[in-house]
Amino acid sequence: MTVMGVWQLDVYQSKTAAATAKRATEPPVPLQSLFSVDEGLPSKAVGRRVTVSGTWGPAADQVFIADRLNGDQKGFWVVTPLMVDSAGAVMVVRGWVASVDSPTAQPPTGSVQLDGSVIASEAADSSGEAAKGRVLSSLRIPTIVHLVNYRLYDGFVVQTSPAATGLAAVQPPAPPTDHAGLRNVAYAFQWWIFAAFTLWMWARMVLDAHRSRDDEDPADDQPATALEPTGTVSA
Length: 235
Known about the structure:
The protein is an alpha/beta fold. The chain has a domain at 23-161: CATH 2.40.50. It is 28% helix and 26% strand. The protein is built from four helices and eight strands, in the order αββββββαβαβα. A five-stranded mixed barrel has the order 2-4-5-8-6. A hairpin with a 2-residue loop joins β4 and β5 (88-97). The chain starts with a helix and ends in a 21-residue tail after the last helix. The model has no long low-confidence stretch (mean pLDDT 84). Keywords: Cell membrane, Membrane, Transmembrane, Transmembrane helix.
């Protein structure tokens, strides 16, 4: 039963890996076809390749995400708003730079059409850094939305092509695994519960047998003896 549970868990892991890989390799689609600026980021959109067209937003709205590695070197992700339409903008991770003062980190202008991958906000809060400037410790829409005066899509696009001039490319983080195959997880726990129940029943039977021997009356095992007279009666 334990082996069967492990096998079902392996099936689940293979299903989620396959589903995640498939989603990341599907052909790119327009960002707006996955969700709108008024919607939260759906799980099906995370990791999807998308195309985005628009005009680069105000230079003052660009932000930097600190402590990001490019090989062994720490630097910053350069994140710039792209005005998709009159409805709002999407924040684009254009690339990596060693210093926020680098000339290559200057915000671009004009119109652009690019491809990229959708990623979700990070969990860590960086609202404290937002109050001090444009260098943040985490990539998070709830923080950045307070730094601009227009609506933002609830997700980021990591630019993959065309490559941003002067910036090192950022590898999109691996998307989280899908929930495909959760039935196999349930089966795995079911097998392990059966195994635990079997062990419990065996222990209970052994304990009951031991108690039965202890409860037996020792007097029942002694042979019966005749009563002997305690005195004599005179005639």
